[in-house]
Design a protein that fits this description.
This protein has eight helices and ten strands. By secondary structure, the chain is an alpha/beta fold. The protein is globular.
């Protein structure tokens, strides 16, 4: 795995970025892939079987992105809601395509049992540029709170607000990649004027539970379901995954709402964030997408079986 540079090429070490540094950072971002051809086209193909809606539009200069959600066609007001989100960090590819694979291959299996709502690509600008942040150098996945500075987060919260009290399960699909260590964490430290502290990248799949509302049996059900698809990340020599104590096999905990994370945006009883490792020589893109879809199905099956 490549190591991070000693200093980030933008800004002055120890000094948070101002407008000049943010502008320089933005000038270095280039489009690598197409949201329209890779994501919107796939959503369009689902429209004969599911309801598709535009829940907002992002405008960054001349770039305009419709934000799209996919809903169960047979929506029943007396059923609980399952919320599936992907691409909150746009560069995390299997979050987007795993969400689409789930709804395409398995979404209809839950008709009449739950209402499924999928937002497969929350951050399309980041998807196209294979980046963690939005165009304002803001991390959407730290922005799910009142007066959010990220329109990606604010738009999704507006979509979910009328359903917030009915969400039984929210599963947010992510990846941990080698570039977290070589680019995104160094950029974060530089942006905030803090020292970069090198860490390790877990080799395998893991989950982030909510430390304020832990559901250990639920998390382990997902780990067991995903293991036949891709390997589970072992703890490092400190007993940690990505700097956090491993509380159970393949599981760490964060205070989801306190940190403004997407998975904490509702009061759902069952909440989790998946973390797939696409840079492993033991995992293919197809395995990563399938692992995400399998995790969603396992999460729904568990939530329905243990619904109170």
């Amino acid at each position: 795995m490549n190591t991070a540079p000693a200093t980030y090429p933008i800004g002055t070490p120890g000094t948070p970025w101002g407008e000049e540094e943010r502008a320089e950072w933005l000038s270095r971002q280039t489009r690598h892939r197409s949201y329209e051809s890779e994501v919107l086209s796939a959503i369009g193909r689902l429209s004969p079987r599911f309801d598709v809606q535009e829940y907002g539009r992002l405008e960054y200069g001349s770039d305009v992105y419709p934000l799209m959600a996919i809903r169960s066609r047979e929506w029943h007001e007396d059923l609980p809601v399952v919320l599936v989100t992907g691409g909150v960090h746009g560069y995390e590819t299997s979050g987007v395509h795993g969400a689409l694979q789930f709804i395409d291959q398995h979404g209809a299996d839950y008709a009449g049992r739950v209402n499924v709502l999928v937002a497969p690509c929350v951050s399309p600008w980041g998807y196209e540029r294979i980046h963690r942040w939005n165009a304002n150098a803001i991390d959407p996945n730290r922005s799910f709170h009142d007066d959010s500075p990220a329109e990606e987060a604010a738009a999704l919260m507006r979509l979910v607000a009328p359903l917030r009290d009915r969400v039984l399960l929210h599963i947010d699909l992510h990846e941990t990649t080698d570039t977290d260590e070589t680019e995104f964490r160094p950029a974060l430290a530089a942006r905030d004027g803090k020292p970069f502290e090198p860490g390790g990248i877990p080799d395998g799949f893991y989950l982030v539970d909510d430390s304020e509302n832990p559901q250990p049996e639920f998390q382990q059900a997902l780990i067991e379901a995903v293991e036949p698809v891709t390997h589970i990340a072992p703890a490092d020599d400190k007993g940690e995954l990505f700097g956090s104590p491993m509380v159970a096999r393949g599981v760490i905990q964060y205070p989801l709402q306190k940190l403004g994370l997407c998975a904490g945006m509702t009061d759902a009883r069952y909440r989790t964030t998946t973390e797939v490792y696409p840079d492993s020589p033991r995992a293919t893109p197809e395995q990563c997408n399938t692992a995400q879809a399998v995790a969603v199905c396992a999460a729904i099956d568990y939530a329905l079986a243990h619904r109170q």
